[in-house]
Design brief:
Blueprint: H1 3-18, H2 22-36, H3 39-60, H4 68-94, H5 98-107, H6 116-135, H7 144-162, H8 169-180, H9 186-202, H10 206-215, H11 221-245, H12 247-260, H13 263-275, H14 279-296, H15 298-303, H16 318-326, H17 329-341, H18 348-351, H19 375-380, H20 389-396, H21 402-414, H22 417-435, H23 438-448, H24 451-468, H25 489-494, H26 498-510, H27 514-528, H28 531-543, H29 547-560, H30 565-577, H31 581-594, H32 599-611, H33 615-628, H34 634-646, H35 650-659, H36 667-679, H37 683-697, H38 700-709, H39 711-716, H40 724-731
Helix pairs in contact: 1-2, 1-4, 2-3, 2-4, 3-4, 4-5, 6-7, 7-9, 8-10, 9-10, 9-11, 10-11, 10-12, 11-24, 13-24, 13-26, 14-17, 26-27, 27-28, 28-29, 29-30, 30-31, 31-32, 32-33, 33-34, 34-35, 34-36, 35-36, 36-37, 37-38
Length: 732
Amino acid sequence: MNDLSINEQYDSIVQLLQQRRLKEAQVQTESLLTAGADWTLGNRLEQNKTSYQYMLQYMRQGLNDPQRQTLYLQLGADLWEIADQARIAALDKTSAYYYHELRRNRAYMSSPAPTLEDRLHTLEDLADDMALGKLLPQDGQIPDGLLRKHEEANRLLFLSTWSNSAWNAIDKQQAAAFLTSELLPENDLCLLVSAVTMSLLECFDAAKCLWMLEAARHRKTSVEQRALTGLVLVLLRHGNRISLYYPQLTETFQLYQEEYNLKKQLNRICLQLLRSRDTEKIDRKMREEIIPEVMKNVDFLRKMKFESDEPEENDWNPDWTNAFEKNGLGDKIREINELQMAGSDVYMSTFSMLKGFPFFNEISNWFLPFDRHHSTIIQSLKNLPESDKAASLILDAGLFCDSDKYSMAFTLAQLPKGQRGLMMQQFNNRGLEEIIDEQQFGHIRQHAARPEIISNQYIHDLYRFFKLFRRKNEFKDPFREDMNPYHNPILRTLMTTAEDIQPIADYFFQNNYLEEALELYREQASVEGTPDIYQKIGYCLQKGKRYREAIESYQTADALYPNQAWTLRHLGTCHRMLKDYSAALEYYQKADALQPDNYHILFHIGTCLAGMERYDEALQYFFRLDLMKDDKNLKIWRAIGWCSLLCGRWGQAAKYYARIPEKERTADDWLNAGHVAWVSGDVTSATDYYRQSAALYGNHATFREAFEKDSSTLVFLGIPSDEIPLMKDLVI
């Protein structure tokens, strides 16, 4: 069997287990086991089959067994775990993926691998040695050899934890000691949390889930936030499985929620993960719009720099501000700031090109918290003064995730000393040395230590790993999966109130994920529908062109909170899209009474009157709109031209179509101008206009189709029907 066939067979077993078809799943698991040839798994499967057979026999005999459902769930969970291990054992023999390479290498080691307890003691001892190293008279620097031993111990802990698909009873006990150790450095525990997360994403393990729950209430914020983020990702991937076969684990999640109120933090992390859906869009916008716009204005930006020896302070030319706004650069920079303030990942495009350093070839390094005492960082920044405030601001602030901070440090190291000094000088010249004192640095560090900043930056680290790691194709990317927490049975049970649902629903709504928003708003409305909720439901339906359903929601909103111009206007629009112009007109007129002289409302009133063939009345509104704007108003001129044509004011129609500049005329404009000329008796001009229209349509078939739609109108205006085919041929 190859990798593809193994995974296909495993997916088939999973599908059977999700449908609770245990007997068929047992048969397929037995077949999968032959590929791995693991006799211990074979014994487990035989026990599973025997227990299930006995349970079915008792049921056939009509015996009442109060534990039947509990046993059924235990057998289902056990069978799924057997299938997991069978799949991994089979892939260990065939797969070239790094995960299976590690497992093969471990299997062939002659000496027993260190236990989790051994690894914990090693890290604790190294932490003691490093603390002592700081006290020795070596400029407070830890010896490089000691640092590298510590880093290697962490690397091995990560790899061994990640590649361990299931903890046994001893592993569980020894792993718990990591959470209570007083000697283990915080960064080491953070890395272990990431290793457990990656292991769970590779293969579900209830013991690791429980360990992550304990880690999620650790006293260290960075550990807590990593564990919470990892839990959300694990629940998004394995939530259906847990809800089907692990009732005790489900109850434990609920218990932790009630005891420690996890849902507020889980909800926030869900929102942060949902924002990651927009990273590619932001990245594309940065590369295609914002960065090119900034580069176009390099000379303009250079003008704005002040030389340090200028005598005047604040000598800013007001003309520069105007130019800054006129060229659109101000809007672009404001847009970046707004995205960043909302927690969006605006630096992916910048740092994605800076992940080629050898440091990033090692998988564990993608999850390392940034550490100035890491051997590679000490080497990179050895020529940069520790007191340099600009560098400290960059590396300590919560602007960049840990992965990007490493990239920044390595980039600084590659710059020639003169250029690096100049770069830092540029930061300092912008006032950092003067405006950032020790107290402000403290505030910056406090901001970076906030839970929401830590979890958001950790999500950025995870995103970069799954998108940029050189072997990324070997991993199932969680950022490509459904991240809606309300599609997940476990997260759904933890977040049940309107207060929980509202932020997620509003995120979907504000970011134009309207189907997802609609689902949640409808759920809210079923409990307590407010006018605002029904308006949003209506808007989602309207944008989905489900106008009749939208009307129902808008009418409910109007009943709960009457005489709101916004609701009335959208009711009018939905009726207008259904070509119910009479009803639409009524709503627009009500909205007009509340918001007189609203350009859009007046235009739609005119449109409805035209749709009802009340062209003279429609013209009054369009003339009024034409007077409201001093500059060209092509949409209104077209409306006046069309209504004038249909009510027999052909000279007026010709005048307004002529107002439209030729370079801005559409195929429809030329077509309508041709109609005006023809009904006015100017066949020569009509023919020329029609030819211009056909040229813009691109082909005569499209022109003929558009012309045919207006044939009844031409006949109504007095053109003999038998001349229409002649005109079409004349145009060709």
